[in-house]
Amino acid sequence: MAKFRVTFQFDGKAEVEQLHLEVAGAVVSCDDILRALGAHLKPSEFWPFVVAADALADDADLAERAVRLHRVKAACRYLNLASLSYLLEGRDMEIHC
After folding, report:
1. In the prediction, which pLDDT does 63 show?
2. What is the rounded CA–CA span in Å between residue 7 and residue 29?
3. Which residues, including other chains, have CB under 8 Å from residue 95's CB and lie 6 or more apart?
């Protein structure tokens, strides 16, 4: 189980919210965080986006980077988010999606 704290802000809202969530398996990308947050915010809805099985490689080409960026932006629009970041348990650095 991967445990993490997710910090997010809804579009048009001044408040920043935080949740502590966990997912089965490892967190490899923002896709995992967005899917977990989506399950919390919209529990009755099926997650409509692909979730990357692997982390984005450092040498990934521009096409792969563009696809992942587009998917993250679409997922944020779906959840009505203005910002999103997460901190994995046991890590020091927060990651912004």
Report:
1. 94
2. 15
3. 30, 85, 86, 87, 88
